[in-house]
């Protein structure tokens, strides 16, 4: 009798759990109607409110293997490339098919950019930047970072910063360095020079770099965006406010300089924004817009390129045949250089074909922006599947780059896979596509190229804990990677 009672209790508990588990499904079945609900992509909306948020978090943070999340969807629902789920409070469609990814990236009529609240914090507090027409904002961000003529102005400075940095690292040979952080500081110097016209003082540079690390950590850990003491999101807001105050001070100093000295020369992008006026002679960009623009650019400009550069150094150091082939190419370029030439030129950088393949393979193998987010503006039908208005769409760049049907042995680091290979549209999307294509992509590749050039010719790496944990959020990076950089005799 007792056994029967236990079985009944277990059955009731399981039944209640199953019912609760299906509440999301029932809610959207009623909300959308049976016919529309059946047209949704295959998948599972999971538990009420939380959906599959904890499973996604566990995959990225605990297991450090986001591809396993996609593989589970493939095994359960087939490889159609679209799956419904429920993540971080929002009904979501995950997209892994390259053609569908491309279509969504380019379809601005039906999809708008959308990020979780913890990521949108980078837009700043004023709203001026996020509310501006994104095409205007993109032009403002991209103009100092793209194009042959523009980038050629920065080669000497970038080379100087990187050469000095490598020399300093090697002089600290007895002490290992945290590679991602050190590269981040170098690239931070570059981006501040481009946008501010001069480097920040050392104290401010270190303070901002530390605050941006807090911001990165906060975006990773802030699963629930509540602004209350004790929540990670609260700390995230505090770090952002400190960054805003620092940058606001820099912008105001620039404004005072132009107001006090009418002959001041425009030297950088912030100067251009400060003095810009419309057809009526009024100030074109608000101080808050300029501040929020710099806040976001500084984050992206030193964080993601630094992570990619770190992976590049690790891969070439762990693959001697790749290192040797790259070194032969660099030595060949140096041998052709006129004796009076002292440093790199953009023409020489264009000759680095194998180095370009290495960088492409790094961007594929260690996709820095694993996912991009969109939101449907209206009801959309794609490949026979219905996506309702207001749903989140996650474009999984990493799933495309690690698809064995596109890239054989995708886990292998193999720059030679790019020999005579041109990906089809949507198959290589490290910087996104369309009007939201990363405005700093060319600058990032230039920085990484110059770093690899000097490292390959003059240095080697000795690992201390190169097998350290690989944190996958907000970008996959070798967490706490310590190494020694040694100058070759």
TrEMBL record:
<dbReference type="InterPro" id="IPR001128">
    <property type="entry name" value="Cyt_P450"/>
</dbReference>
<dbReference type="GO" id="GO:0020037">
    <property type="term" value="F:heme binding"/>
</dbReference>
<dbReference type="InterPro" id="IPR002401">
    <property type="entry name" value="Cyt_P450_E_grp-I"/>
</dbReference>
<keyword id="KW-0503">Monooxygenase</keyword>
<keyword id="KW-0560">Oxidoreductase</keyword>
<keyword id="KW-0472">Membrane</keyword>
<keyword id="KW-0812">Transmembrane</keyword>
<dbReference type="GO" id="GO:0005506">
    <property type="term" value="F:iron ion binding"/>
</dbReference>
<dbReference type="InterPro" id="IPR017972">
    <property type="entry name" value="Cyt_P450_CS"/>
</dbReference>
<dbReference type="GO" id="GO:0048868">
    <property type="term" value="P:pollen tube development"/>
</dbReference>
<dbReference type="GO" id="GO:0016020">
    <property type="term" value="C:membrane"/>
</dbReference>
<dbReference type="Pfam" id="PF00067">
    <property type="entry name" value="p450"/>
</dbReference>
<keyword id="KW-1133">Transmembrane helix</keyword>
<keyword id="KW-0479">Metal-binding</keyword>
<feature type="binding site" description="axial binding residue">
    <location>
        <position position="438"/>
    </location>
    <ligand>
        <name>heme</name>
    </ligand>
</feature>
<dbReference type="InterPro" id="IPR036396">
    <property type="entry name" value="Cyt_P450_sf"/>
</dbReference>
<keyword id="KW-0349">Heme</keyword>
<dbReference type="GO" id="GO:0051777">
    <property type="term" value="F:ent-kaurenoic acid monooxygenase activity"/>
</dbReference>
<dbReference type="GO" id="GO:0005783">
    <property type="term" value="C:endoplasmic reticulum"/>
</dbReference>
<keyword id="KW-0408">Iron</keyword>
<protein>
    <submittedName>
        <fullName>Cytochrome P450</fullName>
    </submittedName>
</protein>
<comment type="similarity">
    <text>Belongs to the cytochrome P450 family.</text>
</comment>
